[in-house]
Amino acid sequence: MTNPPAPYPDAQDDGLKLTFALDQIRDTFDERSEPREMFVAILDLLRTHFAAEAGAIVLLEEGMDEPDTIINNGISQGEALDLCRAAMRATEPGIIDNPYWAYTMGNEITLRGQPLGAMILVRQSEPFTTHDLHMLSVAEKQVDSAIIQARTAWKLIHRTRELEAIYHVDRLRDETGSNERSLLEKFAAYVGTLFSADFVGISLTDADGAPGEFVINGRGLPDDSIARLFEQAHGHASFSGLATPTGVTEAVFISAPLITHGIRLGSVVLGRESLFTRSDYRLMDALCSQLDTAIVHMRQLQAQPVDAPATDLSSVDDAPFTQSIRYVSDALHVDDVRLDLLANEVGTPAYVYSLKAIRDNFQALRAAFPDSRIHFSAKCNNNPAILRQLIEDGAGIDAVSAGEIHLARRAGAHSEDVVFAGVGKTVGELYYAVSRGVGWFNIENESEAATINVIAGEHGSRPRIAIRFNPEVQANTHKHIATGHTYAKFGMTEQAARGLLDKKESYPNLRFEGIHIHIGSQLGDTSATTQAVQQALRLAHDYPFIRTLDIGGGFPVAYRASQSLPAPADFAAQILPLVRDYTLIVEPGRYIAANAGVLLARVLYIKHQGGRQIVILDAGMTELIRPMLYQAHHAIVPVTRRDGPLSPVTIVGPVCESTDQFAEDVLLPPVQVGDLMAILTTGAYGSVMASNYNARLRPPEIAIDPDGTKWRVTRRRENWDDLVRTDLRDDTYRL
Ligand code: LLP
Predict the structure, then answer these.
(1) Is 288 an active-site residue?
(2) pTM for the full predicted model
(3) Is the beta carbon of 553 within 6 A of some atom in ligand 1?
(4) Pairing outcome for strands 612-617 and 647-652
(5) 552 lines ligand 1 (CB under 6 A)
(6) Which of 362, 376, 377, 483 to mutate to test the pocket of ligand 1 (most atoms within 8 A of CB)?
(7) For the residues 225-243, what does the mean pLDDT come to?
(8) What local confidence, expressed as pLDDT, does residue 289 receive?
(9) Extended strands (E) in 247-372
(10) How far is the CA of 262 from the centre of ligand 1 (A)?
(11) Ligand 1 within 6 A of 321 CB?
(12) Domains identified in the chain and CATH numbers
């Protein structure tokens, strides 16, 4: 059998050669190449193959009907665009009639019915043949896939270009302080280079809303031409082409509006020889909105009286660095571990803890309260490495659920060294705690006493009870974390406590031996605590079988370097002389863990909106909710310290909640997309309060050994399996 003859001699062979050559061009293209170069090479090849004098490839923007890229060779951009449009309109590949060239053939490039662009080739000397047309459609099959390949690369390139450009405008703003004119001049010069524009003009609207003074860069146009360009520009609220001024040839002018919050700030006009594409428009749009914000920001600054106090210390200067968490050269370290390197290994967001700092803080407390039992409040951080180390160093645990008791025991705690507190313990939890022999039950109401009494009777044990007493004092702290006042749900009033202690004989299986108080967390001074201890002592005095006082936690931690707060020793100085006759228990959480931890996050995006520079991190309220819940301040510092002018930034998370904001108007040196940031003092009430809201995955927790160098992931990052771990199949669920 012989193959049927090819429609034209050599058609197959020619087609294969062309396909192969185009393939080769595509194969040399990788993610580091500039896609435009690929199309330049393709066009060159086609011109040679078809002995064409000129040619063009026009590509549409993805999902749009608009040309985005024009590759032209031997032909002007305008002609290229016209011819390619004609090729796209034609129903099939073919000869295109046109006023420019003697012979033109063109072909729309499509993929699965979707138009991607067009290519055209022109000759003056000799008409194209049917064979040429056939070969052009062969080429089209290769070029369509090249376009798809290039689009992916282009997206990345555009995005990077855009981010770089935005960042550059920020830098210009910072460099120019509050000198608006100098900012505009620098902007014009920068835009001129970026777009290879021969003319860049900016005019801000004057008090009457008309174009004001011009800032011009490039081509010397007569003043009246410039005025006319801006009049036109000013009439447009979006990107628009402008009429080329008389006397100017071969140039295209466009205008971009400067509009912020619906207020017209001015216009930018660009002129150059080649056409502007959609991606130029997009880039210009990003630049203009950055310029808007810069102008608004400057005006706000100017509006402030000259002698206005500095808004704040920079977030870096006021960050509460410690011996463990500090910069070494310009790299933020936790002990001897460089956080940038660590983040590269473990990803972000991630919690990092210094076990050395945990140990140091525990020792500091022990030094302040040498003869007391120290029960670490596991609610603030139940990381296994932290629990294990504290337990090894001699700490007991303050637990508020059976879950925490379980974690404490798993980390090596003896049950008798565990205090079980909590305003709403369930029967199940109490049963678990009694049967495991938990050391203390800090009870909060009489029914709880009755329940434990029954459970203990069944179990045959006599657990120790401390009554949580509400001393009705007002602690100096945030209202959400004050617990010892009249309106708090916590503890028992003096009357209720006395009522219970007076009839302790009704609960034969309970040993009432302690009074417990905890008036709040992050206590700003020692006075409320001292007062509360005095009240507790008065109560205890009447019940001589009370031998132990548990004074709770609450020792404060500086979240800013400039904050001055009482140290544990200050509390001890007030309290210890009062409680000599009693065994003392303290339940610190925050003081031990807070400044031993940082939350690492990466900058995903930077946005300029509403006159603010918004830095979007990959960590949010799902990882650290304290700022949103208590308006808590956490210093946020760059992991790599950079010099540069400070500017106010608003730092937010990615969660779909307006409240997902860490800080507003904090002063930071320049921040860039991709930068690592550390949110400090997040070792307490950080990871434990993390959630899966928005189906986000809870971050890993990394512990750095007390030697300062070895680190390990003590809790891995959650994955999608974790998200569905508790789901049941529908039918199972119904059973
Ligand atoms: N003991 C009891 C009975 C407590 O309720 C607490 C904390 C502590 C000890 C430990 O307090 P610390 O030493 O950590 O201040 N989520 C809030 C804090 C809630 C505190 C709850 N109770 C925050 O992020 O600030």
Answers:
(1) no
(2) 0.62
(3) yes
(4) parallel
(5) yes
(6) 377
(7) 87
(8) 83
(9) 252-260, 263-272, 325-328, 331-334, 337-338, 350-354
(10) 47
(11) no
(12) 11-154 (3.30.450.40), 177-303 (3.30.450.40), 313-364+589-726 (2.40.37.10), 422-586 (3.20.20.10)
